[in-house]
Design goal:
With 141 residues, this protein is α+β, with helices and mostly antiparallel strands. The chain contains 5 helices and 3 strands, in the order H-E-E-E-H-H-H-H. Bound molecules: zinc ion. It holds the Pfam family NifU_N.
């Protein structure tokens, strides 16, 4: 399978399953992200306990890329410490900006690596980074 079809398949499957798209009743942090250029409006809800991200989910509406990037991010950071999640956000945002990222770092991103191609699609960058920016704001609090 080519990278393009893996990318399409992952995005479709995350949007179909919607397993991370629901209300988190006991969220400790909530951050809304808005991308006016595309119309994406997503809210990330995270439950942090003793420095560990024990649960996360999102709500809102947005394009397939923004929702899949958010959902894949949630899978990735759940059960990680705040410090680990911060490091992942840095790696992901560097990758999207087209900066140098080592292969060891890329491996840590797991499925989120499919969004690397966004670095060549400037119009979609904000879609693919919306969820990560919400996470960044929460983790800096
Ligand atoms: Zn979008």
């Amino acid at each position: 399978m080519s990278m393009d079809s893996i990318y399409t398949e992952l995005i479709m499957s995350h949007n179909r399953s919607g397993h991370n798209k629901h209300k988190l009743a006991d969220a400790s942090h909530i951050e809304r992200g808005h991308n006016p250029s595309c119309g994406d409006d997503l809210t990330l809800q995270v439950k942090i306990e003793s420095g560990l991200i024990v649960d996360a989910a999102f709500l809102g509406s947005g394009c397939a890329i923004s929702q899949a990037a958010m959902s894949i991010m949630i899978d990735l950071v759940k059960n990680k410490t705040v410090e680990e999640a911060k490091a992942l956000a840095n790696i992901y945002l560097s990758m999207i900006r087209g900066e140098h990222v080592s292969s060891e770092q890329i491996e840590l991103l797991q499925d989120a690596v499919v969004f690397e191609s966004l670095s060549k699609m400037p119009a979609r960058v904000k879609c693919g980074t919306l969820g990560w920016h919400c996470l960044d704001v929460i983790l800096e609090k």
